Amino acid sequence: MAELKLIKDPVHGYITLKEDEICILDTYPLQRLRRISQLPFVYLVYPGARHSRFDHSIGCFHLAKEMADHLALDEEEAELLKVSSLLHDVGHTPYSHLLEPLLMESNLSHEGLSIRIIEEYGELRDSISNAGISVHDVTDVLRGKVRISPLVSGPLDVDRLDFLVRDAYFTGATYGVVDIKRIIHLTRLTDAGPTLDVRGWGVAEELALARYHSFMNVYFHHTVRAAQVMFLRGAKRIKEDLGVDFGSMSIEEYLSHDDYSMWSLMKNYPKTRSVISRIERRLLPKLLYEVRYKGEESPEFTNKQEELEYEISQASRADPEKVYVDSSHAPPLLKYGPQMLKLHSDGDERGGVDLWVMEMVSRPFTILRVYVDRDVSEVERVREAARSILSKT
Is 257 helix (H, G, I), strand (E, B) or coil? Predict the structure, then answer.
């Protein structure tokens, strides 16, 4: 019998890995995740939020193992589920989702980069093959092509189950407390994918509520977003001036970047040094105006933020470098509505569940905010300009 290795995780307890799995974990792309924040700059509000993408990845691995054991998957499919869960975030940019817009400018995503890294990075590819797992099968899971794919990325996937409880643990906020064991226990796997026992509808609603409150009170906290929007502007300057373009890099160069390298680049570059200095001192932009859009009424501002910043600064005669517009968008929990969450029971397929709560809390929403640097004297003019301009959007 292969020797088992133990990792003590503060959220799930002991996590067991076989020697082949440790070899995958020890590859450079996965070890890099130790240096990528799970929640960038959330520690400015919740001091304990210092956990990494590496922590989250081994948590997902553990929950995938528990799911595989419950579903009585055969050894091959169980191993595929575990390794795919371990690798699902390997393509993240530094600072996780915060710098994802820099990838999106090249029509790329961290999911696509994860697949490329798995396919192209020799050390990782070889370690997967040496564990008796097909690299092609792993990428098929991540592309959503097989029945276990929704367990990695779906309505009740191990990714979401881990990050909600992990973020709750490290922030100390209780919004993300979810009964993971019950969800796993009530999940069944068919050829069409996973289904949830109708008795688990309540815990599914609990998860949807936890996700909503985590977005509102942690991920989209106005102070957190103030630091993030300022840092993102600095990262865009680094891309423009120094050519640090994640979308055009080779896999080797891309993997050489992490939170530390980006922080150092910005701290040593004269035009972005002040961004780091202000984050170090928690001297963040001040929130002036906020408007929230719920459900399908949410407008799309992804490509309009710089345009809005310029328009507001012109209307208020403020320095455009000191005005920030942030559009924080939470996608729907279930892309095509609550019906995406497939249920099973001994009787009626729907089990008579009430969809109202799920429909309300799983809808997309957008928070549009305007900030200014604290040394701006035209505060009221900026506020009025923001109110006037954004009321027309």
Answer: coil
